């Protein structure tokens, strides 16, 4: 029986095309988080995907006037009220896109304090994967969010030749990131000791924080 108040997972996608690999990555990370949350507890999980391409004009108007139109205000409130956030951008000129940055420029710099965030990006080549570390992590550190350890970068070759199927490495990163977000939303700590706990490869163990402290004391 689901509780009345659902957990809220919000994914922000800054993809410009339709269909978009950026949106696809947002969907899959959000799906992995929802799957883990629904397996671990009995509360309903609501997932919302915010497409910034649909809000581009509103974002530009807000930057000029200081007043967000209703649709943009609703999106900003969804982000600030989420239990867990997923932020996905395409790589433009070796960094996040201008649309992505402009949206988060509108978020109050204290509104994401303590909120768990998975950062992710898409690009044409794996050479741009460090954008997650040199651009996105500092941005969300400034916004005082809790950026989770596993970030997800998807280059063109990661999606497979058809564009629908993913290759072996990407699904594991998506599952790991989704599991970390679920654990953070539930206030638990993720451990990589999967074999010791009998979990399959690619799955993450959820270990209570007090147990991890006890293990540190034993060392």
Automatic annotation (TrEMBL):
MF (Gene Ontology): oxidoreductase activity
Entries under SUPFAM superfamilies matching the protein: Flavoproteins
InterPro entries: CE1759_FMN_reduct, Flavoprotein-like_sf, FMN_Rdtase-like_dom, NAD(P)H-dep_FMN_reductase
Keywords: Flavoprotein, FMN, Oxidoreductase
Signal peptide region: none
Location of the NADPH-dependent FMN reductase-like domain: 8-159
PANTHER family in alphabetical order: FMN REDUCTASE (NADPH) (PTHR43408)
Designated name of the protein: Oxidoreductase
Native organism: Streptomyces finlayi
């Amino acid at each position: 029986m689901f509780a009345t108040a659902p957990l809220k997972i919000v994914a922000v996608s800054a993809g410009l095309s339709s269909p978009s690999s950026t949106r696809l990555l947002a969907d899959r990370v959000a799906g992995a988080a929802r799957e883990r949350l629904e397996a671990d507890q009995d509360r309903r999980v609501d997932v919302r995907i915010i497409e910034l391409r649909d809000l581009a004009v509103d974002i530009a108007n807000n930057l000029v006037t200081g007043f967000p139109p209703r649709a943009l205000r609703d999106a900003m409130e969804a982000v600030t009220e989420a239990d867990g956030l997923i932020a996905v951008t395409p790589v433009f000129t070796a960094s996040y896109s201008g649309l992505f940055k402009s949206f988060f420029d509108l978020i109050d710099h204290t509104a994401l304090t303590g909120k768990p965030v998975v950062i992710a990006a898409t690009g044409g080549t794996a050479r741009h994967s460090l954008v997650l570390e040199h651009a996105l992590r500092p941005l969300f550190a400034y916004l005082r969010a809790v950026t989770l350890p596993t970030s997800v970068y998807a280059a063109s070759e990661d999606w497979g030749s058809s564009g629908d199927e993913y290759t072996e490495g990407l699904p594991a990163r998506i599952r790991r990131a989704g599991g970390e977000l679920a654990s953070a939303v539930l206030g638990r700590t993720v451990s990589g000791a999967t074999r010791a706990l009998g979990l399959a490869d690619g799955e993450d163990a959820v270990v209570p924080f007090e147990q991890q402290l006890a293990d540190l004391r034993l060392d």
